[in-house]
Design a protein that fits this description.
This is 3-deoxy-manno-octulosonate cytidylyltransferase. It comes from Rhizobium mongolense. By secondary structure, the chain is an alpha/beta fold. Helix content is 35%, strand content 13%. It contains 10 helices and 7 strands. The chain has a 7-stranded parallel beta sheet, sandwiched between helices. The longest helix is centred in the last third of the chain and has 29 residues. The radius of gyration is 21 Å and the shape is globular.
């Protein structure tokens, strides 16, 4: 395992280590150098400073796309940025946010960009598109097709977690902030099956395949089988599913009522949004400051 100061012969050189990678074995060699691989979700649950202090210097932190949602200052630990392809390419490329995002990373410990795609409709980008940043490509087209919910698209974090788990790496895989929790600030996009992903994460955590930072909540249903051993776990699971289905159906009915009641307000909102000038629609960039070589 390596640390930021371990740059001896034979050890992985951190700066730009992922440049031009595309072969699975080469990616495995890079990830195998670290004692912990922490996937950092763009979530309000994450305090990255506290997170970094919790793990050793031999940890690799994996960030996703728009890191300004999570980082408020420069990040000096070992880091990779996963940038997911879209039909028009990576969103930080076509939205002109490359410099803003890359400015958060210390160049000496920034391994580079992992440009990911999961569908043939997703376009990979070149290093030039990322303004010369070291870029490797991970083409996982078809990887999740055999087990993911039809008609839904996996999140980048889920795909990376599943792929890393299957690589049988020597280090620990840790998920930080993957809650699928909707708040006033954080959207939960309907294109993904959040329930399926959370189920997979908890199953993998309970099987010690991955770790979830701050742990997994105690499953009260598991305790029921100890309290009533004559009731099978299957019956408990079926009863829980039945109650969940009824509650979800009731919630859907109330949501439909809210959609009907707020129709006029949404039309007014859409009208005012369409009247905004173009300069008001573009997010003002935030730059933490220049990086030294």
């Amino acid at each position: 395992m390596i640390t930021p100061t371990d740059q001896s012969a034979g050890a992985l050189q951190l700066k730009g280590a992922v440049a031009d990678l595309s072969d699975t074995l080469d990616w495995k060699r890079v990830f195998s150098q670290f004692s912990h691989i922490v996937l950092v979700a763009n979530s309000g649950l994450n305090d990255v400073q506290l997170l970094q202090r919790h793990y050793p210097a031999s940890t690799l932190f994996v960030f996703f796309n728009k890191v300004y949602k999570t980082l408020s200052e420069d990040f000096k630990g070992n880091a990779i940025l996963v940038s997911r392809g879209q039909p028009a390419g990576a969103n930080i490329v076509y939205k002109g946010e490359v410099d803003e995002v890359l400015a958060f990373f210390e160049q000496a410990t920034f391994l580079g960009i992992l440009n990911l795609r999961l569908s043939v409709l997703e376009k990979l980008n070149t290093s030039a598109d990322f303004h010369g940043a070291p870029t490797g490509h991970l083409d996982l087209v078809g990887f999740t097709d055999r087990f993911y919910t039809p008609g839904k698209t996996p999140t980048s974090g889920f795909a990376m977690a599943m792929w890393l788990t299957g690589m049988n790496l020597p280090g620990s895989i840790v998920l930080a902030g993957f809650s699928a929790r909707r708040t006033e600030k954080w959207r939960v996009v309907a294109a993904h099956d959040w329930s399926f992903e959370q189920t997979c994460f908890r199953l993998l955590a309970r099987a010690d395949k991955i770790s979830i930072h701050d742990g997994v909540a105690i499953n009260a249903y598991e305790n029921l089988s100890d309290l009533f051993p004559e009731i099978s776990k299957t019956d408990i699971a079926l009863a829980a599913a039945e109650v969940f289905s009824e509650r979800l159906g009731n919630t859907d009915a109330e949501v439909d009522k809210l959609i009907s009641l707020t129709g006029a307000a949404r039309k007014i909102d859409q009208m005012f949004r369409s009247l905004r000038p173009a300069w008001m629609k573009k997010k003002k960039p935030h730059f933490p400051g220049p990086k030294a070589e």
